[in-house]
Specification:
With 373 residues, this protein is an alpha/beta fold. It has two domains: 12-181, CbiD-like (2-Layer Sandwich); 186-367, no CATH class. It has helices at 15-32, 122-138, 154-157, 163-166, 186-202, 214-223, 239-248, 260-266, 282-291, 296-303, 308-317, 321-339; strands at 12-13, 38-42, 48-52, 55-58, 62-68, 82-90, 95-99, 102-103, 105-106, 144-150, 168-169, 171-172, 180-181, 207-211, 232-234, 253-259, 344-350, 356-363. Strands 4-5-6-10-7 form a five-stranded mixed beta sheet, with helices on one face. Helix 5 packs parallel to helix 7, helix 9 runs antiparallel to helix 10 (296-303) and helix 10 packs antiparallel against helix 11. It is globular. The two termini are 38 Å apart. Pfam families: CbiD.
């Protein structure tokens, strides 16, 4: 019997999109003193979406609105959560944004939000502020406003996330870079990887570049400008699966390009690098720092880091290039172990801003006897 094709998974919207829409509705209601039960915003991907409000509580000085987050078919912990925005007039010029009940507070370094601030990430923060400014401009208002984003059930929801371990206390983070939630489908994603490798093979590519996402792919394309577009494949979290498919398809050279967080896991032999798959081993990173010549104080700083990115920033600040080269070499070795040799693997690690931190290459055939394949 033929297998039934998978139904297309329904996309949802991020907490950042919900917060921006609720803010627009609340501010419009505050200015007009009229109930607003919907708001249309422009997402970072350029798409306009209208959100329905579940509540709109109006006073002369403030308005509270709330919308229910729809994560689509993604198994998101915040699905069905109410995302609220309370907008008030302020005597201070400009727009003040903060988090209220159920929005976490950052207590550790190494995150994209400074310590002490509400865990509203940069893109959602920009969306909220731009949505508010758009309303102020439309009504030609120059008065200051205060925006408080809250998630009534956020503290309970946060227990299902990694926020506590990352030092985000008291609730969830307001997240999102695209504005939409792309459903996580293992079989669909793996199928897309296989298709991409097949296309590369048919196009005559003997060298492919596999990346964890769109940002790292942009860095990779600059690093390998002579390769055709078909040679670049987004593997997402499926590192081991992608490497095995490359070898199975006869690809001779594979370059892995990514950033500290996920590549720190690859270097430890973790070949499925989803955030929930395995934690970063900071003891492992501390050992690499020691091998690179770091002093005891630096080593302990790495060991006590909050995120792999923070550990990388420390080593970069101290000028330990060998730390990153060793990390890349470990990624190559673990990748070759995963596929039992037969291909050449090289690894490059970048910062979020596109600075190359380290690079290494290993030819699996040279180590076949050493690893007893």
């Amino acid at each position: 019997m033929e297998a039934k094709p998978e139904k297309p998974l329904r996309q949802g919207y991020t907490t950042g999109s919900c917060a921006a829409a609720a803010t627009k509705a609340a501010l419009t209601a505050l200015i007009t003193q009229e109930e607003q039960l919907e708001a249309t915003i422009r997402l970072p991907i350029g798409k306009f979406v209208t959100f329905q409000m579940e509540e709109c509580q109006i006073t002369s000085d403030s308005v509270l609105t709330g919308t229910i987050k729809d994560a689509g078919d993604d198994p998101d912990a915040t699905h069905k959560a109410v995302i609220q925005s309370k907008v008030s007039w302020s005597d201070t010029p400009g727009i003040m944004l903060d988090g209220g009940i159920g929005v976490g507070r950052v207590t550790k370094e190494g995150l994209p939000v400074p310590v002490g601030e509400a865990a509203i990430n940069p893109v959602p923060r920009k969306m909220i502020l731009e949505s508010a400014q758009e309303v102020l401009d439309d009504f030609q208002i120059s008065r200051g406003i205060s925006i408080i984003i809250s998630v009534p059930e956020g503290e309970e929801i946060a227990k299902k996330t990694l926020n506590g371990r990352l030092g985000i206390i008291g609730g969830i983070s307001i997240l999102g870079t695209r504005g939409t939630v792309i459903p996580f489908s293992t079989s669909a994603y793996k199928a897309s990887i296989v298709s991409a490798i097949n296309v590369a093979k048919v196009s005559g590519c003997h060298h492919v570049v596999i990346t964890t996402g769109g940002r790292s792919e942009k860095f990779a394309m600059k690093q390998y400008p002579s390769l055709p577009e078909d040679a670049f494949i987004e593997m997402g979290d499926f590192v081991g699966f992608t490497l095995k498919q490359c070898k199975r398809s006869g690809i001779k050279r594979v370059s892995m390009v990514g950033m500290m967080g996920k590549f720190s896991k690859i270097a430890q032999g973790v070949m499925m690098v989803h955030s929930k798959s395995a934690p970063v081993d900071f003891g492992f990173l501390a050992d690499l720092a020691e091998s690179a010549g770091a002093n005891p104080e630096m080593i302990e700083q790495v060991r006590g880091s909050n995120t792999a990115s923070q550990a990388g920033e420390l080593m970069h600040a101290y000028g330990f290039e060998e730390f990153f080269n060793s990390l890349c070499d470990s990624c190559c070795i673990e990748g070759l172990k995963e596929v039992k040799g037969g291909i050449s693997i090289e690894t490059s690690i970048y910062t979020m801003k596109g600075m190359l931190l380290g690079k290494a290459v290993r030819n699996g055939d040279e180590y076949k006897d050493h690893w007893n394949w």
